[in-house]
Write a structure and sequence with these properties.
single chain, 156 residues, Jelly Rolls, 6-stranded antiparallel sheet, 4-stranded antiparallel sheet, 14 strands, globular
Length: 156
């Protein structure tokens, strides 16, 4: 009886872990006084060795419940190995009128993990740099605790 339960538990754990992601890189930068000035351009660098896998790239934002916008506009600059810097403007939706904040909340802190790419992508081997700059009309942007980048390898 004990062996069947242990085997079932082990098999369940393997199946759940088999369709997951592995965090390859995650780094956050904090903002003093919980304000993100547009002049404070964050830079994050990471290396990719596995070119056969697919990856998800996220911008991770932590803000207080007092943040008074449903979105945030960011310039996201990517420097890909052997290529020039490319900057794209993103409008990341953080809340909606029906359910409120879309991220995970703990007390008055909301963590948002918003995808930069719409589906998993293959990445070249080498060093990458991702830069984040807030471009909201309010400057500095209040109630922002920290921001960062997360890269996950998709396990199939």
């Amino acid at each position: 009886m004990f062996k069947i339960g242990a085997v079932t538990l082990l098999l369940s754990a393997v199946l759940i872990a088999g369709c997951d992601t592995i965090g390859v890189f995650e780094k956050m930068e904090s903002f003093s006084n919980h304000e993100w000035a547009s002049s404070n351009r964050l830079s994050f660098s990471f290396d990719i060795a596995d070119t056969a896998s697919f990856y998800n790239v996220y911008v991770v934002l932590r803000h207080t419940d007092a943040y008074h916008y449903n979105n945030i506009y960011l310039n996201v600059t990517s420097i890909i190995p052997g290529d020039t810097a490319v900057t794209r403007q993103h409008n990341f939706v953080l809340a909606n009128n029906k359910t409120g904040w879309l991220g995970a909340a703990m007390d008055d802190v909301i963590e948002q993990r918003v995808a930069v790419n719409s589906s998993p992508v293959k990445l070249k081997k080498g060093s990458y740099t991702v830069m984040l700059q807030q471009i909201m009309r309010e400057d500095p942007l209040p109630d922002m605790i920290n921001a960062g980048v997360r890269v996950e390898k998709v396990i199939q």
